[in-house]
Every structure is written in C-alpha cells, then in structure tokens.
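REQUEST FORM: STRUCTURE PREDICTION
Request ID: SP-0412
Submitted by: Lab K.M.
Chain count: 1
Length (residues): 178
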Amino acid sequence: MTRMQLAHRIVGEIPSDLRRSLRRQPLKALTDIGLHVQPVTQMTSARGAGGMCDGMSFSDRRTILFAPTQSRRQNFTLLHEYAHLLLDDNDDALSWLADQEQPGVEQERMCDDIAAALLVPDEDLDAIVGTGPITGQHLINLFQDSEVFSTDWSFGGGEDECRFGDGADSPRAQPDAA
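STATUS: Completed
RESULT:
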C-alpha cells in the first residue's frame, strides 16, 4: 500500500458529515469532537531544517496547538495536526510508517496528504480538473471553491520539533493541563 492510498483510506474512515465540517470550519469541527485546540501566538514558523512549523499535536492529551494566522494557512495546519492524532490511533498507519526508511518524513507527508484530502476532496478535484492536466484556471477555480468555506489555510509540519520564542533554545510546547 502506498502512503497516498493509506491517507485516503484514513480520510474515508472519517464520517462524511465530519469530513464536511472539517473542510468548512476546521477549528469548530475539531472542538466539536472534543479536542482541545488552542492558539499559541508565541509559536514561530522556524524549524531547524528550514520550512514551516505552525502547529503541534499531543495525542495523549487530545490537544492541538497552532500559530494563529490572518490567512487561510491555519486550516491546513489544524487538519495536519489532526492527522497526527488520526495516525497515532491507526495501527495500519503506524505499522506502515515503521517499515519506512525515514518514518518521520513519511509521517509528515502522510499528514500533509490527509489534510489536503480533507480540504480538497477527490470528488471536488475531479469535478474541477477532470481527467486533463491541471491548468492555471483549475487552480483558480479550486482556490475560489475553497474560499467559500473558510478564511484560513496552513502548511505545517516537518520532522523537527516546533519551538516557541526565537526558536533557538526555547522549550518545546507544553499544553495546558486542562
């Protein structure tokens, strides 16, 4: 099984009404299912290996921390972090990851795949793009279609830990005990 096949299977296991809610209002949907979701303005976007780090998740506490943004980035971050929680509860995913040469990298990619599939479902992609190659107009149409539902989008993750403050020697985030 490929990473993408496994990601789509995990997304398919989410009830359709929850998938719709996650796409339209990720923050509300996540809190509605009982997750503790908290903005952390001190979280930086810097990672040791470069790239973005806009969120963190803690499976044992059912908690997602995220850097609030004034852009659509936030939705992707929230769903990427939710994907970490889904993977931690999925034995098939954990087994697949354990067999990979770089499990940390593959885990981040799978979380990206899950977040993307939740934000732009295959049926929407197929309806806009069809079978042909993706064009610039297709991208505009996909963007406009997703704009109807929400105002934030996020690209997060990476195998290095997220840090607070300047990112140099700051401690790793600790969620509230609540």
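NOTES: Residues 3-120 form a domain with the Arc Repressor Mutant, subunit A fold (CATH 1.10.10.2910).
Reviewed by: T.R.
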